[in-house]
Design a protein that fits this description.
Order of helices and strands: EEEEHEHHEEH
Structural class: alpha+beta
Number of strands: 7
Radius of gyration: 16 Å
Strand order of the largest sheet: 4-3-7-5-6
CATH architecture: Roll
CATH superfamily: Beta-grasp domain
CATH topology: Ubiquitin-like (UB roll)
Oligomer: single chain
Number of helices: 4
CATH class: Alpha Beta
Helix content: 10-25%
Length: 132
């Protein structure tokens, strides 16, 4: 009989166990004012932020159309901006400062500042959850 797979207690809704002092090779996402979290490589940033407990806005469900999921990169690098993302951001000042978290996948350690949150927006919900 094959040995049973080892089960871990899942933490922070990310779906990855917290190993304490044990190091993992997962990218680290630091969200200013909230903490640092392990994120599966390739996960859409908006989902990683939301799954970390931050009430990030994503009113269009990740189309990109609304720009409510915008964020600033404090440290690290992300995939290049798509034409759709650039068109949604539209204004040069926004394009220089922000990216849309629904259009970015986490591939390495990243530190960000979330620009739009439900709790500070006056809206009643974040919007439809984007697909990964």
């Amino acid at each position: 009989m094959a040995p049973r797979a080892r089960r871990f207690r899942y933490t922070r809704a990310l779906g990855f166990p917290n190993f304490g002092s044990e190091e993992t090779n997962l990218p680290k996402l630091t969200i200013e004012g909230f903490g640092t979290y392990d994120v599966p490589e390739g996960k859409k940033l908006v989902l990683a932020i939301e799954d970390s407990g931050v009430d990030i806005l994503h009113r269009c469900g990740g189309v990109p159309a609304c720009t409510t999921c915008k964020f600033e990169i404090l440290e690290g690098s992300v995939n290049p901006m798509t034409p759709e993302e650039e068109e949604a951001l539209e204004e040069p000042e926004l394009i220089e400062k922000f990216r849309l978290s629904c259009q970015v996948r986490v591939t390495s350690d990243l530190s960000v500042r979330v620009a739009g949150r439900v709790s500070t927006s006056g809206l009643d919900s974040a919007g439809d959850r984007p697909e990964d």
